[in-house]
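step 3/5: co-fold with flavin mononucleotide
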Amino acid sequence: MKKITAVIGSPNDKKSNTCTMVRDFIDTVKQYYSDIESEVISLGINKVEPCRGCWNCFKTGECVYKNDLLPEIRDKILNCDFLILGTPVYEQTVTGQTKILFDRLMMWIHLIGLMGKPTITAVTSAGDGIKSCQEYLDLIVQFMGCILVGQLEGIGLQPGYFPERQKYVEKYKYLAKKTASILSEKKEAKPSKMNEHAFEHMKQHLLCQTKKSGENNFTEYSFYEHEYWEEKGWLTMTYQEALQAEKSLHP
Ligand SMILES: Cc1cc2nc3c(=O)[nH]c(=O)nc-3n(C[C@H](O)[C@H](O)[C@H](O)COP(=O)(O)O)c2cc1C
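step 4/5: write tokens
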């Protein structure tokens, strides 16, 4: 059985328009392929502490906070077969809750921690700011390694007032079908130029540090990152080679 995990950065939980749009979408996916379990995690009730900027994750790969829900949410994202990341637009961009999640997962940008994960982003607003919010969201998930399969967007007004709900169910049927095909392994999610760029960017950043500081003489902040890339063998691979290597690890 395959798993869809959705993480929604709205402070509203049951009344969230973004949650409603995403839940409707998952129900439609299940109409095309039923061997799916799903979970929608609302950051409105599953609180995550803001990053304190200590850089410990760079030194050890671990966050110093141990007592909030981040580790649980992180593992659920890591272990799902398909990710949906949603947020309402707040002041033209993602909510604070969504940004806090990204900050706490900063290491995934440096480790391409979600390499190859098929992902859909979902945004609702009262009519403005969808593009800027979506661009940011799409950029971050692709820098984390996610393969962007599509985007959901909808207009919602006050919490719990999502007047065109049915219109979005119809509009995104094609995307639900595509998602079902990926989950049933009839189709593969295709990486973008941005995935390739993110990989090359991080690889060059590490190789550049090697040149500057000499082999095995990394600053304490990049040692963990370098070891991780070495262990994966990615420093001498192209993005496509790294992606294939990762797929063979998690068939
Ligand atoms: C603090 C705050 C800021 C908002 N900023 C915007 C905005 O910049 N543009 C916009 O169109 N809607 C804005 N909205 C409206 C929400 O994006 C919209 O109602 C959304 O559907 C709420 O999603 P939710 O029910 O999932 O929380 C804002 C709402 C709040 C509470």
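step 5/5: annotate
The longest strand covers residues 147-155.
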